[in-house]
Amino acid sequence: MSEGFTEWLRSRSDEQLRLLAMSRPELITPVPANVPGLAARAATPSAIGRALDRLDGFTLAVAETLVVFPPGELSAAIHRATGNAPGTDEAIGRALTTLTEMALVDGEHRLAPGVQEALDPPAGLGQPAARVFRHDERAITLADPRAVRELIAQVGPQARAALDELAWGPPSGRVPNARREVSVETAQSPIEQLLARGLLGAIGDETVTLPREVGLVLRDDRLHRDLSPVPPPLEGATRRAELASRTAAGQAFSFVRSVEELCEIWGVDPPGVLRTGGLAIRDLRRAAQQLDVPEWTAALVIEVAHAAGLIAAGGPADAEWLPTLAYDLWRARQTEDRWEAVARAWLTLERVPGLAGARDDRDRLLNVLHPDLRRGAAAEIRRRVLTVVAATELAPSQESVLARLTWERPRRRGAHLARLTEFVLREAEVMGLTGLGVMSPHGRAVLTGVKAADLLAPLLPEPVDHVVLQADLTAVAPGPLTGELDRWLGLAADVESKGGATVYRFAEGSIRRVLDAGQSAEEILAMLARHSTTPVPQPLAYLVTDVARRHGRLRVGSASSYLRCDDPAVVDELLADRRAGVLRMRRLAPTVLVSKASRATLLDSLRSMGYAPVAESLEGDVLITRADARRTEAQPVRQVNGLLAPEAEVVTAAIRALRAGDHALLSRPVPVGEPGGAVPRTPATATISALQEAIKQGSRVWIGYLDSQGQATSRILEPARIEGGYLTAYDETRAAIHRFVLHRITGVADVN
């Protein structure tokens, strides 16, 4: 580790260290003991790689330029790459500020330790000639650009074309017998001409590469081609802001209703959990049909409901997908609050619903709710895409969004980015964060972490508390219904069509559901009359009274099960029905039958035969069944905060602890006889003797120690014992007990 870099970090102010921690949070997780620990962690390949991944295209180009050119030539090199584009100087200043804040360059704009190795080779250039030719005379020749130009002028047009093809990368190619010795006089093929003059170098039996110095000459000393100091513009269609906002609000309302409808359906008829986890394809298709949406939208609804804790695996041995207890609390809230809850769950979701139905690398089907849908970068990419969309008042095209994302994080581009971008844009539209491709006000609020419900509420359609009953046993809802009426009508009728107005159809089965829920015919008719703008049609009144008249005449209990009826004629009719033979019923009294079948089986069988039985308890009371009776406990869902930076309070506390540890390091005692605190070095026998004496006296010593990377460090120890080639001691430097390998101890000194 460079001492100069460590001292430069130590000289940074608390605010500058705070900016470093905010931009590179992995450096304070956990908090290093002191500034040298921070410097060592900042120079690790993994930490540098993460930092470089966060740089935009121009800032990364500045860092790559510093690999090839000294800081004094940086500005000229960047100007050559941009063609002296306006704003280049300002962009260079911003890039250097960012690199300095992230400790990728120091105060003199020199690359921090480890950065050059992480960026080598930069910008598609090849290896330096000294590395390709192992410091022979060809490397010395290529160090002079004029000599390189003279060598290039000596080759033929085909050889020059090969050079031009390699100039902008990749700089390597495959040729047979690459290591064969050829001279300028004996060279025949274009590649042999280049190899003989050192314009190409063999780095393998069949691999040649273009030396860096040759590549720079071919590029006219431009490290990058068509470098832009500003991001690519966002292009797209213009939309009326009010229309876009209202469209987004309508989509948000529809999505909330879809989530609620899904939970209500699954509360009555839950699908099973696959043995490997997730939801079967047939259950996804059935959910799509029930919600009247495409399968990918149904997958999104299911995944978001699960992420929000509204559905979870439950039932016997967690074998079914059921609504949770949290769903009932969510359902009782206002529509705008319900939407904000599911929107935030989607924003931080570490899963990709759009992959449902696709196949993985091993040709396995990816099911909804399956663990294989998790992608670590999903939440970050989702936030980045929405941030780009929110940066313009247009409806940006997918291509321009992808181009901007690639410029912002060039090291993270790839096919998966294009696919995830497509998923995010279409999901944001369906959920109502965007309308007609434009970011909505409530969508911006969710993205920035402020209250979104207040912005959405004025845009939502006003719920109505009435329907229009028609003589064909249908009811037309002219708009979104109030919560109570919507749930009741969803129980009493089946949805026939959706749109600007929802059409419900009453049938014998739907009326029976209301009767099973404990309401009488009079209560049903009163409810219809209260919420209808027209009188209750006679066919509907007849249907309700007819189903109610037959409902409950048969009562089923447990014997395995029993059946009783006040009318012996009905019992006679049932015993004479050949379809009832499989139930193996036996008459105990004129009005009582028992069956080997369970109560649930007996109920279902009698209903399939056209009867309308009800269940009763052991006390003879009617058991009321409700559509939302089945619930399970909510399960924790892995989420992320969607932010790259930690909380400001955490960073402040970390910097305070770092400073305290560094102060303790600088104020600790120095070893006797080691000027300037240099690492102690003593012969092995003297080292062992000194450690044994310290153990006997119970005194502290200063040791030099080689870590696993071979770097010499110093520690203050209180030795405890020597055993099996190890020293066990209390390490005051780390405030912990450690075991040290004896042969790695370079020496021992006393402590003042």
Would you mind describing this structure in some detail?
The chain is 45% helix and 13% strand. With 752 residues, the chain is an alpha+beta fold. It has five domains: 129-219, no CATH class; 236-458, no CATH class; 468-550, no CATH class; 561-609; 668-750, SH3 type barrels (Roll), CATH 2.30.30. The strands form seven sheets. It has a five-stranded mixed beta sheet, with helices on one face. Strands 22-21-20-19-23 form a five-stranded antiparallel beta sheet, covered by helices on one side. Helix 15 (241-268) crosses helix 17.
In short:
With 752 residues, this protein is an alpha+beta fold.
Any key phrases for this structure?
752 residues, alpha+beta, 5 domains, 32 helices, 23 strands, elongated, XPB/Ssl2_N, WYL_dom
Neighbour order of strands in the largest sheet: 16-17-15-14-18
**Separation of termini?**
27 Å
The radius of gyration is 38 Å
Helix content: 40-55%
Topology, number of strands: 23
Q: β content, as a range?
A: 5-15%
Q: Indicate how many domains the architecture comprises.
A: 5
Q: What is the count of DSSP helices, taking H or I runs of 4+ residues?
A: 32
- Structure classification: alpha+beta
Uncertain runs with pLDDT below 50, 5 residues or more?
Answer: 640-644
Characterize the overall form. elongated
- Calculate the mean pLDDT score and round it: 86
Question: Main β-sheet, in a few words?
Answer: 5 strands, mixed
Domain Helicase XPB/Ssl2 N-terminal: 467-589
InterPro entries: WYL_dom, XPB/Ssl2_N
Pfam families: Helicase_C_3 (PF13625), WYL (PF13280)
Domain WYL: 687-748
